[in-house]
C-alpha cells in the first residue's frame, strides 16, 4: 500500500511539474481553462453575496492603479480583460483570481494610504495569479485528499487499532507540515513578484515597506508566524528591503519610459 501511495503521488508530480516566475518548482495539475472557470465562478458568487462600492471616485482610483499594474504583466495576462470590483468590507484586504479578476475591500484604502501602497497590494495579488498559486493550492488539496483516503483504506484493511486517532494525527501533520508552510512560501513569492510589478509600473517601491508597517500597526496582536498562512510583517519588510535596490532600478527605468502613475483619491 505504501508503494501504491508513492506511485500515485509520484505520477501526479511528474504530470504537473512546472516552474514559477522565481524559478521554484511547483505542482499544477489543472489547465488554465479549468482555473479560469473556477475564478469566474468564484468572482460571480462574491459579487452576488457581497455589497459592492458604487462611489465613482473610489472606483476610478482603484481602477487607475490596477490598470498600471496589469499593463506590465506578462503578455498573456496583460492582454486579457481584467474586471476590478471594490467591495464594501472593512477588512484591509484585496485578492486576484485566475481569469482576470481583482477585488479590493474598502478597508484596504484606510491602511494603504496612497497609490504606491495600494499598488504594492495589487502587485502582490496578481503575482499570485501569474505564479499559478491557486492551481498549486487546488492541486495540493487534491493530492492530500487522495493520500488521506488511501492511508485510511490501508489502516482499515490492516485492522490497525486506534486508526481514527492515527488519521487525525495524519491530518494535523499535513496541516502544519505542508499546508501552512506552503502558503507562506506563496506569500513570500507573491511579495517578490509584486514588488517588481509595481516598480515596473512606475510606483515607488519604498512605499511597500510603509504599507507593511501600517499593516502591522492595524493588525495589533497577530498569530505567531509559524502557525500563520502569512509571513509576519517584520519578515516581509526585511525581505522587501533586501530586494529594494533592484526594485528602485526598475522604477527608474519605468520613469525613463514615461511611466509615472498619477492616481488620486
Task: Describe this protein's structure.
The chain contains 10 helices and 5 strands, in the order αββαααβββαααααα. It starts with a helix and ends in a 9-residue tail after the last helix. The radius of gyration is 21 Å and the shape is globular. Residues 4-15 have low confidence and may be disordered. The strands form 2 sheets. It has a 3-stranded mixed β-sheet with strand order 3-5-4. Strands 1-2 form a two-stranded antiparallel sheet. It has one domain (31-257). It has helices at 2-15, 32-49, 56-70, 75-78, 108-111, 115-130, 133-157, 163-200, 207-219, 233-256, and strands at 17-19, 25-27, 83-87, 94-97, 101-105. The protein has 265 residues and is mainly alpha-helical.
Entry summary:
Residues 4-15 have low confidence and may be disordered.
Give the secondary structure arrangement, pairings included.
Elements: H1 2-15, E1 17-19, E2 25-27, H2 32-49, H3 56-70, H4 75-78, E3 83-87, E4 94-97, E5 101-105, H5 108-111, H6 115-130, H7 133-157, H8 163-200, H9 207-219, H10 233-256
Parallel strand pairs: 3-5
Antiparallel strand pairs: 1-2, 4-5
Helix pairs in contact: 1-7, 3-6, 6-8, 6-9, 7-8, 8-10, 9-10
